[in-house]
Specification:
The complex is a heterodimer of chains A (226) and B (306). Chain A is α/β, with parallel strands linked by helices and 226 residues long. Chain A has a single domain, classed as Rossmann fold (3-Layer(aba) Sandwich), CATH 3.40.50.300. Chain A has 8 helices and 9 strands. In chain A, a hairpin with a 2-residue loop joins strand 1 and strand 2. The longest helix of chain A has 16 residues. The termini of chain A are far apart. Chain B has 2 domains: 118 residues, no CATH class; 159 residues, no CATH class. Chain B is 76% helix and 0% strand. The mean pLDDT of chain B is 90. Classes of the chains: A alpha/beta (226), B mainly alpha (306). Chains A and B meet through helix 2 of A and helix 7 and helix 10 of B.
């Protein structure tokens, strides 16, 4: 369980998260949606302890960060590190050694090649593989479906469902609504750092329609395409 | 084309400013350091002219990197790209050619100049798909990635040791020894992205202990062929060789701790000055190492649980 109470975050005078309160329970997946700059990544960084903040974040297993698998939007790779070494680095950092890589390479990545030579999607799959092999209790997946091919998206969806089955807590941000409706139990909508609403699975369709209307508005007309 | 070079100039000034220096002073310092280092190399070894040529060409090789030249081609077109590349290599080779001319190596200077111009006509892939094997694969990342970037240094250092023993020049042997340490130090100059620290389920103390321990273990592995060779062939200089070995290790620890003491920023002037002073007076390391250690612990607290 992760519980957030009255979380606020500012960069100077710019308040990017305003009094956020959420609770994430074991065995459930939560979607965080909102436009670019709504505060999703900052919220994730606060939960991970990568940012200072006002408010409270508590978890049933402490310290939270030592049991958290964090997938960043754009994972960084050293220029001469192989896929295998990257996984080993992340697993060693969590005390997981003697891993059998080959059988767990579910995305069939060329693990002996430099990760920097991978395509965007392959890099994301490598980062996902590494945090899964860390065997965490909590997962934050920031845009996990971006740049990943459709077959891997299907695998990824199944992985999230499996994590729920294993009683893990999963937080996902995505701009592809269908992936969230397939996996999440609850979705939180952020706008300009504020928690606009939280909806349960039964209301996802309505939320999607509402977001579409707000997002599109009269923007297409404004373009004046001819 | 003029805009391109203006932009390069502005970007260079920015980098010097970020290091806390006035750009003019930065250029002066760089020039002074270049001249002093060249003088030192020419004083120390007869192979200095080759080192000068190799250094210049390796820098130009980086400028010929395929992605970079493709960008120049798509932005400026074929003719301007060629002019830019020739001019870049020309500017870069000036100090190296000048130093060769000052030392009366006219033939080598002409060769370097011609090679520089010819090199500008080619592009090279720097990201070969070939994965260079490393003995440090089990404990990524500094030594595994660093070794792959600098692996050519090590056969050179070992060859210098063999030459040193053949010509009975202990200084050259010590130089080869220090080359291994300096190369290893360079793996720790740049701060890694915060994720690679955050991901460790360790306290700052354990994290630093592991970093220092692994670095020491790895550098010993690389330096041991030179260490043993020198000890076997110069048993009477046993103490001197071991002192250099110890100082090398202490500097390695200093640089690791200095890196994290400045984290998330890069090491800057204050750390540089302290390290420079301790180069002249190594016992200073005994004070500097605990200072950097305590500062590092503080800096790492926000990423690691205490």
């Amino acid at each position: 369980m992760i519980k957030i109470n009255g979380l606020s975050k500012s960069y100077g005078k710019n308040e990017v998260l305003k009094n956020i309160s959420m609770e994430f329970l074991k065995g459930k997946a939560y979607g965080i949606v909102g436009e670019n700059g709504a505060g999703k990544t900052t919220l994730f960084r606060c939960i991970a302890g990568l940012e200072s903040y006002n408010g409270e974040i508590i978890s049933d297993i402490t310290p939270l960060k030592n049991h958290l698998g964090l997938l960043l939007t754009d994972p960084f790779f050293f220029s001469k590190i192989t896929g295998k070494e990257y996984i080993r680095l992340l697993c060693n950092a969590r005390g997981k050694t003697n891993l059998e890589f080959e059988s767990k390479n579910i995305f069939d990545l060329p693990l002996n090649q430099y990760a920097s030579t991978y395509s965007t999607g392959m890099k994301k799959k490598l980062a996902i593989t590494a945090i899964l092999l860390q065997e965490n209790e909590y997962y934050i997946l920031d845009e996990p479906f971006n740049g990943v091919d459709i077959q891997s998206n299907i695998i990824l969806t199944e992985i999230i469902l499996k994590l729920k089955e294993l009683k893990k807590v999963v937080l996902i941000s995505s701009h592809i609504f269908s992936t969230l409706s397939d996996t999440c139990d609850e979705i939180h909508l952020l706008r300009k750092g504020e928690q606009i609403k939280s909806v349960q699975k039964s209301e996802f369709k309505h939320l999607e329609q509402e977001m579409k209307e707000i997002t599109i508005g009269n923007r297409i007309e404004r373009l004046g395409l001819k | 084309m003029k805009g391109y070079f203006n932009l390069q100039y502005v970007m260079t000034n920015r980098k010097i400013n970020e290091a806390g220096l006035n750009p003019l002073l930065g250029y002066l310092l760089a020039l002074t350091a270049f001249v002093l280092l060249s003088e030192y190399i020419f004083y120390k070894t007869e192979f200095a002219k080759y080192l000068v040529i190799l250094t210049c060409l390796s820098l130009q090789f980086k400028l010929s990197e395929k992605n970079r030249t493709d960008f120049l081609l798509s932005t400026f077109g074929d003719e301007s790209k060629m002019k830019i590349r020739v001019l870049e290599n020309f500017i870069l080779c000036i100090p190296f050619v000048s130093i060769l001319l000052c030392k009366s190596f006219l033939f080598e200077a002409i060769i370097l100049f011609l090679c520089s111009i010819i090199l500008a006509l080619f592009s090279f892939h720097s990201n070969f798909n070939l994965t260079i094997p490393t003995p440090f694969s089990k404990r990524p990342f500094e030594f595994s990635t660093g070794f792959r970037k600098t692996f050519l240094i090590f056969p050179i250092a070992y060859a210098l040791t063999v030459i040193a023993i053949n010509v009975d020049n202990l200084n050259l042997g010590i130089f080869a020894f220090l080359l291994v340490f300096l190369t290893s130090l360079s793996y720790y100059f740049k701060p890694e992205q915060e994720y690679y620290i955050w991901v460790h389920a360790e306290t700052p103390k354990v994290f630093l202990k592991n970093k220092v321990f692994n670095a020491s273990k790895n550098v010993i592995l690389l330096a041991i062929p030179i260490l043993f060779s020198l000890l076997i062939f110069y048993p009477s200089e046993f103490e001197l060789i071991l002192i250099f070995f110890l100082i090398g290790l202490l500097f390695l620890w200093t640089v690791i701790l200095a890196k994290y003491s400045a984290y998330p920023d890069e090491m800057n002037i204050p750390e540089g000055i302290m390290i420079a002073f301790s180069l002249y007076f190594p016992p200073l390391l005994l004070a500097i190492i605990p200072f950097f250690y305590l500062k590092s612990i503080n800096k790492l607290k926000y990423l690691l649980n205490d």
